[in-house]
Amino acid sequence: MYWYDGGLVEGDSLAIAIDDPGLLYGATVFTTLRVYEQSLDSGLTNWQGHCDRLYNSVTAFGWLQPDWVRLRQGAELLMQHSPVLRITLFPDGREWIIGRALPADLANKQKNGVIASVISGSQLSRSLVSHKTGNYLSAWLAQKLAQQQLAQEAILVDASSGNWLETSTGNLWGWRDGYWWTPPIAAGILAGTVRSQLINWLQVKEENWHNELLRGFEAIAYTNSVVEVIPFHTINEQQTQRHYNPHHPALRQLKDLFSPPKQ
């Protein structure tokens, strides 16, 4: 079941024209959100933040705006069946929404952390980094390379400076000197919706992740709208490994922000 161009569709295939720019060139923009408290209006769901992301990209590209009321209608129908929604917009204003379950092993990853591999190479640089477009091939390839190295996530690197940028699916966070640090937008990263929320909620330092800064981190994690916060216990880079405590006390500060307020 999914929502497409104003209606609910039963099935697992989408009919799309063979000359559709979304198919030929990845000419779409998308956002993925997690529904909290069975409501799009929950502060944690951050519906408006996700809509703003889509609106800004559509406006920047000069595409037709979707029917925002209809878009919300589709999201409200699908959220009754799925806690995670992926909302895609086409250049002509069509909307496409699919739902999915949370990752089966998410709780374990959140608690005990995962392995990441630093994946370098200019050919894996994301295009149009300020926008979440359907051309997501470089990030997908980086994650596949990391998985071949028995890691669960990839860390993307600035090919010219060697600075760490983001993961293949989220934003990076490092703890040192009593603060959380994250790479700045100007470094060439996607402004994640969760990243924006955390910057508003916490005292955060934005700085390029060069080697000197990396050496001082006591804990490193990544965030996105689906997985919330997942720490790294091991990061592989070429022939070396960095080890971190996935139970570092500072991580509690991030994780607690995703708990719905108690009544």
From TrEMBL:
Pfam family, one: Aminotran_4
SUPFAM superfamilies cross-referenced by the UniProt entry: D-aminoacid aminotransferase-like PLP-dependent enzymes
GO biological process: carboxylic acid biosynthetic process
This protein's record includes keyword Lyase: yes
UniProt cross-references to InterPro entries, sorted A to Z: Aminotrans_IV (IPR001544), Aminotransferase-like (IPR036038), BCAT-like_C (IPR043132), BCAT-like_N (IPR043131), Class-IV_PLP-Dep_Aminotrnsfr (IPR050571)
Keywords per UniProt: Lyase
UniProt superkingdom: Bacteria
GO molecular function terms noted in the UniProt entry: lyase activity
Cellular-component GO terms for this entry: cytosol
Protein family membership: Belongs to the class-IV pyridoxal-phosphate-dependent aminotransferase family.
Protein name in the entry: 4-amino-4-deoxychorismate lyase
